[in-house]
């Protein structure tokens, strides 16, 4: 049950691995959160902190990016967009308590206010999502400000809506017409199918950006100036120091794989740790799909299994984008 509205009941939407996804779903994204930045120095401050190019970000567009530590290990992956006279970074709520203080650490020297946003976050998904967005929010851009919030295009079948609590119920009721109501597990499924990376508390400070394919989804600028962790990120590109990548894996499961779970790989007749689960989704027919970071030089026919479920074999699936450098 959503905590901000008694009028709508968001429930887990059972989906079998062979099912088509609903034509329209409204998703409660209560396990996501925003970081907001406002103030005169917001652009220059953020430019020196993150992997994406904030200076050239068109107000009509959003982009992925990461905030790293000095060693180039990611504290978070976010989607950044212009929002309410500043910027908003959409990221997992589980890392907020540790990542936000690090992002604010040097803000005392700049004219910028960095806070956890109070916006209600909703997702609109499905083949009919674009038509509903066009009816509800004026404009043709991929980022559309409206009274009380911002609508942001994620992909061809998904939009994020960030709206102030005072307007949230009215906006949600408008979007919910003809839509199935779902918890954020449905958003997880879309993210996994699109192979969009994320950082949870269980995977914070574990990986460099290229280990989660951030360069392949437009989340790293190799032309901008210095930022925290840049040397490591640059070495991973120009010297080939990164030996891992993120893949989609699927297999039988008795329970949904969780971020941080270990996926073992077959080595002859033996099993060794192969990788780490980033996000998982369990279908209603005991199949599961997950994002997993693995060595990037494995044979295509390598088999995998969850360390906690050794009897169920997993295989990797094709990514929806290329990992080859341009």
TrEMBL record:
<dbReference type="InterPro" id="IPR023758">
    <property type="entry name" value="tRNA-modifying_YgfZ"/>
</dbReference>
<dbReference type="Pfam" id="PF21130">
    <property type="entry name" value="YgfZ_barrel"/>
</dbReference>
<feature type="domain" description="tRNA-modifying protein YgfZ-like beta-barrel">
    <location>
        <begin position="242"/>
        <end position="307"/>
    </location>
</feature>
<feature type="binding site">
    <location>
        <position position="32"/>
    </location>
    <ligand>
        <name>folate</name>
    </ligand>
</feature>
<keyword id="KW-0819">tRNA processing</keyword>
<dbReference type="GO" id="GO:0008033">
    <property type="term" value="P:tRNA processing"/>
</dbReference>
<dbReference type="GO" id="GO:0016226">
    <property type="term" value="P:iron-sulfur cluster assembly"/>
</dbReference>
<protein>
    <recommendedName>
        <fullName>tRNA-modifying protein YgfZ</fullName>
    </recommendedName>
</protein>
<dbReference type="GO" id="GO:0005737">
    <property type="term" value="C:cytoplasm"/>
</dbReference>
<feature type="binding site">
    <location>
        <position position="187"/>
    </location>
    <ligand>
        <name>folate</name>
    </ligand>
</feature>
<dbReference type="GO" id="GO:0005542">
    <property type="term" value="F:folic acid binding"/>
</dbReference>
<comment type="similarity">
    <text>Belongs to the tRNA-modifying YgfZ family.</text>
</comment>
<dbReference type="GO" id="GO:0009451">
    <property type="term" value="P:RNA modification"/>
</dbReference>
<keyword id="KW-0290">Folate-binding</keyword>
<comment type="function">
    <text>Folate-binding protein involved in regulating the level of ATP-DnaA and in the modification of some tRNAs. It is probably a key factor in regulatory networks that act via tRNA modification, such as initiation of chromosomal replication.</text>
</comment>
<dbReference type="InterPro" id="IPR017703">
    <property type="entry name" value="YgfZ/GCV_T_CS"/>
</dbReference>
<dbReference type="InterPro" id="IPR029043">
    <property type="entry name" value="GcvT/YgfZ_C"/>
</dbReference>
<keyword id="KW-0963">Cytoplasm</keyword>
<dbReference type="InterPro" id="IPR048451">
    <property type="entry name" value="YgfZ_barrel"/>
</dbReference>
<dbReference type="InterPro" id="IPR045179">
    <property type="entry name" value="YgfZ/GcvT"/>
</dbReference>
